[in-house]
Specification:
The chain has 140 residues and is of the alpha+beta class. It has two domains: 11-53, no CATH class; 62-136, no CATH class. The protein contains five helices and four strands. The protein has helices spanning 30-36, 74-79, 82-91, 105-119, 126-136; strands at 11-15, 18-22, 40-45, 50-53. It has a four-stranded antiparallel β-sheet with strand order 2-1-3-4. Helix 3 packs across helix 4 (105-119). It is elongated and about 70 Å long. The chain starts with 10 loop residues before the first strand and ends with a helix.
Length: 140
């Protein structure tokens, strides 16, 4: 029997508190990885296509994640491009009105975070921020 060969793709293994990438071999099946790894709730390819999902796991359209503002959940926040979030954060001015749909969702998220930091006023996104922080932490 020949050695397995690595495929040129990456799979994203989503868990309840984060995600990690793997490079599957020509012998891998997403169903097997999911079944053998109880901490995995969903497996996607790099285009966001769901290859396998544990029963009862919420599903969204992969092409929709991170494309809306306000964010629906922590996965929208995680999908916002960091450079756009930083740009929105840096551009915030106290006397400016909130950016509209002519700005990207990531930019608007960054702007909203700076507003929260400057004013200290609740904005309703606190539960989403907490959930995003939780999935962003690395386990030791």
């Amino acid at each position: 029997m020949s050695d397995p060969e690595l495929l040129t793709t990456i799979w994203i293994m989503h868990t309840t508190d984060g995600w990690y990438p793997i490079q599957p071999s020509d012998r891998c099946e997403a169903e097997d990885h999911g079944r053998l790894n109880p901490h995995v709730v969903r497996i996607e390819d790099t285009d966001g296509n769901v290859l396998w999902a544990r029963k009862g796991t919420p599903q969204w359209l992969p092409c929709d994640v991170g494309t809306v503002f306000p964010p629906r959940d922590e996965w929208d926040i995680a999908a916002y491009p960091a450079d756009e979030v930083v740009a929105g954060y840096r551009d915030h001015r106290a006397d400016d009105s909130a950016p509209g749909p002519n700005h990207s969702p990531g930019y608007r998220w960054g702007w909203a975070n700076k507003r929260k930091d400057v004013t200290g006023e609740p904005d309703g996104f606190e539960p989403l921020r907490d959930a995003f922080i939780k999935i962003s932490r690395r386990r030791n």
